[in-house]
Write the structure tokens for this entry.
Amino acid sequence: MKRLLTVLAVLGSLSAAVAAARSTFATAVVGLPAPAATHHPPDILLVTIDALRADHLSSYGYPLFTSPTLDAFARHAVRFTNAIAQAPYTKASVASIMTGQYPSGHKTVTASVPFAETMTGHLTTVPIATDVLPSSMTTLAQAVRSAGYQTQAFTANPFLIEAFGFARGFDRFRFYPGPDFADSDRLVADAIDAARDSDSRRPLFTWVHVMEPHSPYTPPRLTTAMFPVSGPAQPIPLQVAIPGWLLPGSPRDRRLYLAAYDEDIAAVDVAVDTLVREFRTMRAWRDTIVVVTADHGEQFLDHGGWEHGTNLYDELIRVPLLIQAPKSAPGVVDAQVQLIDLFPTLLECAGAVIPATAGRRLAVLWNRPSASYPAMSEMVGSQYALRDGGFKLIASVSGATQLFDLASDSRETHDIAPGNSARVERMRLALRRMRTDALEMGRGFPSETAPVDPSVAERLRALGYIQR
């Protein structure tokens, strides 16, 4: 009841919140040197929300009020409208956040075969094995711990586990196994309890990876039926297969999937609000940097597919990014940034040593605007995308390309590659250079693999990530 009252209270001020969140600010963010860190490093709270596409948040223009508390948070944050994930699925994307490297650099990209074989595009390995974070590559948690931070992490995603390298650098790391994903309330409660037990004399880095609104779309009672379907039916053609785990009975009306997804967003919205408020209450004597983002988006037949991990269209790689930091002016930033930029930015804030990284510091947090930079996303061995200058190129290893003018075609429905050969070639060359640089940066970090525990493999199969 308390959480429901919280939602209702925030809904009452939504109009003002959304209007303020859509105001304009300085356009660009990255590349300028940041000032030296203070002698009292801030606490850092990093929240990654699984499968949350940016255009389903109210503050990003969605017509339904799915995220009232995040909208309120955004009013006092820097909200990036063009934040790009480095991969359209969890493992590679989060590995990029944690290392500041593109997937080609960190090599942590597959569920069932080694990176070297993935690079060929011809997969033949039979045993269930997986690429893991190279032990020689410094992670975000390791770097801040070396700077004196306490570190803790909470995740319910079976890709983000200790065996795959994601626990490195964390004093306390908890993965929640089970036939179903642990709900965000449970992770939030445990993170709060752990923070309460932490050393008040030392700064704290906390990472929480929550699973709503990842499929299956099963919103809790608090938000079930919050967004009843309306308007004309959106029938799903009979020839289109529907994964059986998305919704009970696999109804053939697209609106039902969108409604349940939105209701999951509303649920995680409340959980994140609880987490942020409790952290700040418990450790009020310290400044706190709060980052809220997503590992990737989600698709609902936008380009013919379900869920994620199958293409590089914007519904999968354009994600929300909200940052509240001490002395940072709130506002809306339209300049393009990447999730790998969080790595050097947070390390700068922590006063930590910054290892070599493909990311750039988000100078807007020090109220220093700069220009947009190209963004690259990868499905290593399959597809690569470059977003630059308002255009987007998607190139496959087969040689096929697509080009989109994002200013006039944000839904990427009209491929203009056939009439723009010169631009396609320029962007292909730029993409090739970025891929080469990413591979070169990762050359000093040998790839590593590990066997997948049978129980983890079974969980991944249940989610459709490993085929029997």
